[in-house]
Amino acid sequence: MKILSTFRVILFFLLISCYSIKAQNLFDFDYAQFGYDSVSNYIEFYYSFNQSMLNPFDSDSLKVVSGILQITIEDTSSGQKIIDKEWRVSHPASKSVEEASKYLIGVVGFLVPHGNYRCSIGGRDATNEQSKKNYSEFISSTHFITSHISISDIQLASRIVQDSPNKESIFYKNSMEIYPIPTSVFGENQPVVFYYSELYNLLPSNGSSSLKIISSVYNSRGKQVFSKSKPISRVYDSRVEVGSIVVNKFPTDTYTFVIALIDSGSNYGVSSTKKFYVFNPSVIADDSATSQVSGVFASEFGVMTDEELDEHFAKSKYVATEEELEKFEKIASTEGKREFLYNFWKDRDNDLSTTENEFYKNYFKRVALSNQRYGSISRVGWKSDRGRVFILYGEPSEIERYPNQVDSKPYEIWYYNELEGGVVFVFADLTGFSDYTLLHSTLRGELRDDNWSRRISTF
Hints:
This protein is mainly beta. It is 15% helix and 42% strand.
């Protein structure tokens, strides 16, 4: 789902009430990225200037306040700046105290190729270089438009107007006006959390005909304080997911909002998370636990059933040690299995500079592809020998296929030129049911049989 049909930058402002918990911040920002195509995402930056902290000055016989917004996006691999811009945000100075206590809200957006970026976002008073607030953020522009179900970032909002006729609004997308709240603060002055996200790649290629979406909120101590779920049909390839959460009874705290999309048919799930803050000084907390929230709550493992966790680890066994296999077998509780799987894959994240675990993502992408390519009547693709080799080592450099030889059963030879200076795997369909068995490999630790050809001979 494309947010915009063509590349454009949008910039505007809106007045909304400020929140005392962040009243001393001159400038705040938030961001969310959405799928655009197979090579780029659309990233929106939401910003707010605290009008009461901007100095009024004369302009065309009017008193105005003005802030300078600056955004730089730099590719971490090349050091190239793909965005380096400033904008002036001006508004007539408010005469009343009430009006002066409001924020100037706006949004700018860019098409960004997939990659890793360092973003610098800053806001300052146009009349005072010393009055400023700067932020630095590392952003990974990940692939949303793929062959697997995926979820965009979550955009939090102060309100959402559905079926809006105001198509010229800079907050308009997909038939709605989504009013951002860059402070991410809710509570007494903003008792409802509105949210917007996009779901992609929903048309079923395998797995179940429907999906389950689960929305949950956890407090800073890991306690679930909100949860709801519903089925999602797979009639269209993409859709938006919007909703609201009433937080007027939530105690003052930091919360984590999780949207998880589960395909129980293929035992695959994805999730998107977002932190927000609640300021309700009149609400007394009834949860005295002191432990910090575990990342498992913000992952797909946090919403998996016991059966789904067992199946998920079964697919993970190719990279598990004997000790890990034995440890998982002894875990009796669902919570223990969730924590184990979360840490199991976290330990294998080989690039901690990004928010995404690329190793985990690539592994299960191969699991899905192996189910498409190497399944047979007797077993699903990931359980087959070819599936296992593909999951562990990826795409072969070359494949020789011999499906209709007169003097032998069907067989294949896979070459991996980058492994140990070049290795081969030989698979054969010994039963005639397209279930290819590994007969021989020159890779250290794999089955080796230099006389494998005798097993496929039909003479």
